[in-house]
Amino acid sequence: MTSSYQSFTRVEPSSPSNPGFVAPSSIQNVLNDPVAQTSHSAAETMAFSPPTHGRARSVSIPGAQAPRLLQPFDREEINILLLENVSKGAVNMLREQGYQVDFQTGSWSEDELIEKIGDYHAIGIRSKTRLTKRVFAAAKKLLVVGCFCIGTNQVDLEAAGERGIAVFNSPFANSRSVAELVIGELVCLSRQLTDRSQEMRQGTWNKVSKNCFELRGKLLGIVGYGHIGSQLSVLAESMGMRVIYYDVLPLMPLGSARQADSLEELLNQSDFVSLHVPELPETRGMIGVKELSQMKKGSYLINNSRGSVVDLAALADALESKHVAGCAVDVYPREPAKNGEKSFTDELNPWASRLQRQANVILTPHIGGSTEEAQSMIGIEVGNAICRYLNFGSSIGAVNFPEVSLRPITESEVRVIRICYVHHNQPGAVLAVNEIIGSHNVDKQTTDSLKEIAYLLADISGVSENDIRDIYSRLSKTQSCILTRLLS
Ligand SMILES: NC(=O)c1ccc[n+]([C@@H]2O[C@H](COP(=O)([O-])OP(=O)(O)OC[C@H]3O[C@@H](n4cnc5c(N)ncnc54)[C@H](O)[C@@H]3O)[C@@H](O)[C@H]2O)c1
């Protein structure tokens, strides 16, 4: 039997000097209502049950003894808004936690969000919903944002951070989908498959073998040996290809792959070059006129990474001169905002029609990671991140927030509370916390900072209800406080 104390309070960023104690009504109820402070029955103490399918990350820490699910709020009162038809796996996972989940298939406008977001403790979105500064200003109860997608451009990360709201995404759940697409493109390019198919659709029979090749024995050059590049390496070797890779980091090769000393060495030797680097100042225009000329004559280029990595006008030149025998491109410097005819034109990207005219060119609309499996993996990963943050205070994987975690409080530990304290990263902040909790038995404590925001987790044992009340009240009034939550 464990006592449950659940609360949080946030200090508005506009008045950092005036902490303005703002406890939501649910917290006040817990503070005032002795019934809310009584022990939970065993049936009420829900064991976290991550889905058994897919590669769900366990919420518990391996090797720990029976971790206790901590309760940030009364379970009935945790409201989660899921917009844009996020995966059903995530919806089910969050409902299984006992949260109230409001599931919507569409996105909401800024005005609609401002009107309604005040009711929710967590929100899940994909790429269409914009979470702006104004939306965050209205999100009085919001603790966490889950972006059920790769990017987080649609979220004002700074505004979220200023209010102590953690933002999670899923940057790597679609790695396999991209790697598999590249394998398909390797076959299509080496067999001129899309051109033959296009001819047949127009009634033309053109049975040729000239300049059509097997992949077996060919050298694949992978630029960027991260999540996608390394998966591709394994798949390509299973097709009988040889693999060389170039990366700024010295990375352990998988299988029989070998790391090239330079990009030039890779370009000089490879029959196929596939790009898998992130968008960084150093990777912008990484493959331009010079690098294309360093590629073997008759080789192929594949770009499923970012549109800015390749100078596509230079690539059109290299295709027209037949120096490059074909290419597959999935990402572009400028991409249409929505699906529709006549949206990928020279007005958008001035070289578009030049690429469209060339033989053996595969152009796809940024679908590298777009599979049902990737969506489902994203749902599980982001759903788990939301649960871990709400239930345990763990911010591992957050994009706008210091990444902090503590080993779990186990079932056998009673009268233990976890403090989740988001604060301004300023001198004296941790000292002020330690002055409040230092006289108690602090079992474990950790803190980290990211730019202006710092996050402290601490577990304190042997505390009475009065102690908890006192700690909560004093922490919430510290000068650096952005948000204080207590879990038990
Ligand atoms: N087409 C799509 O739909 C799609 C889907 C997912 C990811 N992506 C993109 O694919 C790219 C790779 O994704 P990932 O998940 O494998 O990333 P990752 O971070 O796991 O790996 C990137 C690798 O590139 C290396 N790298 C960084 N700068 C480099 C440089 N200048 N030269 C050589 N290597 C460098 C890094 O060290 C790292 O090993 C990203 O740009 C991502 O946005 C596209």
Compact description:
This protein has helices at 25-32, 88-96, 110-116, 133-138, 157-162, 175-190, 193-201, 227-238, 263-269, 289-294, 312-320, 352-357, 372-392, 429-437, 465-476, and strands spanning 7-10, 79-82, 100-103, 122-125, 144-147, 166-168, 219-223, 242-246, 258-259, 272-275, 299-303, 324-329, 361-363, 416-424, 441-450, 453-461, 481-487. It is α/β, with parallel strands linked by helices and 488 residues long.
Could you describe the 3D structure shown?
The protein has helices spanning 25-32, 88-96, 110-116, 133-138, 157-162, 175-190, 193-201, 227-238, 263-269, 289-294, 312-320, 352-357, 372-392, 429-437, 465-476, and strands at 7-10, 79-82, 100-103, 122-125, 144-147, 166-168, 219-223, 242-246, 258-259, 272-275, 299-303, 324-329, 361-363, 416-424, 441-450, 453-461, 481-487. The chain has 488 residues and is α/β, with parallel strands linked by helices. The strands form three sheets. The protein has a seven-stranded parallel sheet with strand order 9-8-7-10-11-12-13, sandwiched between helices. Strands 1-17-14-16-15 form a five-stranded antiparallel sheet. The chain has a five-stranded parallel sheet with strand order 3-2-4-5-6. Helix 2 (88-96) runs parallel beside helix 13 and helix 6 packs across helix 8 (227-238). The longest helix is centred in the C-terminal third of the chain and has 21 residues, at 372-392. The chain is elongated, with a radius of gyration of 27 Å. 43% of the residues are buried. Nicotinamide-adenine-dinucleotide (NAD) binds next to helix 6 and helix 8.
